[in-house]
C-alpha cells in the first residue's frame, strides 16, 4: 500500500478529521503525520495516540507548538511510543514538557527501536532532562541511538547540564546533527563543545546561532578545524557577536575538508560509496554564508516535507 502524509496546522480538529487520521494510522497508510499547533480534546488526543501505537508505517510525527500540553497527554504519548515500532522522527518543539515530561517519556524514547531524530526545542527543559537525553547517545554501535537532536531555546539548562551534554556528544557513536541555537551558552560552554566536536567521529552539523558567543569562541573553533581532523561540515554561528571574517574563515576551512573527503572517495574507486550530499536550505535571512542541514538522518529530507 502506498503511504502518504497528513499535514494540518493551527486548526481546531473536528471529530471527523480525528476519525480520518486514526483510520489512516490503523490502516498503516500514513508515513508523515503533522498536526502542529492544532487544538484537539484530551479524548481525541488519546485516540490519535492509540492510532500511532497501532501504525506500522508512520515514520514522522509532528506535534509541535503545544499539542502535548499536559502531563496526561505526555503519558499517553509515552504509551503510544512503547507500542510503536516504525517512528523515526519525533517533533515536540514548543511543548511545555518540563523535566517531568522527559522523565515520563524517557523509557519509551530510550527503548524505541527506530527513533533517530528528536526535536525538543523550546520545551522548558532543565538539567534533569538533559541527563536523560544523554542516555539516548550510545557510546558504541551496540544499539541504535539518536542521529539528530534539537534542544533550541531551553534556557533553564545550567552550565553543568551543558557540560554533561558535551561529554555525551564526544562519546556518541551516531550523533550527526546537534541544534543548540538560541540558548544562552556563552564562550565557556562553546569551548566545551569545541572539545566535543574534536573528539566526535560522527558529528557533521552544529547549530550555535544566537547563543551569546564572541570572537573568543570563533577563534577556538577556527584553531580546531585548522589543526585537527574533524567530521564537522557545518557550523552555524549567525546572530552572535562574531566578526564576518572569522565566520568566513571557518566556513572556508570546513568546505575544504568536505572537498578533500570527496576527492579521497573518488580516488579509492567505485568500491567506496561517497558520503551522500545533503539538501541545504538557508537557516536565517542573515547575510552570513552559514547554512544548516535539514534532514531526518536517514538520507531523506523529512524536515523539507513539513513546516517546523
Automatic annotation (TrEMBL):
| Residues covered by region (Disordered) | 254-292
- Where is the sequence biased in composition, kind Polar residues? 283-292
Q: Where is the composition biased (Acidic residues)?
A: 255-264
Q: InterPro entries under this entry?
A: Leu-rich_rpt, LRR-containing_regulator, LRR_dom_sf
Query: What Gene3D superfamilies has UniProt attached to this entry?
Result: Ribonuclease Inhibitor
Which keywords does UniProt give here? Repeat
Q: What's the name of the protein?
A: Leucine-rich repeat-containing protein 73 isoform X2
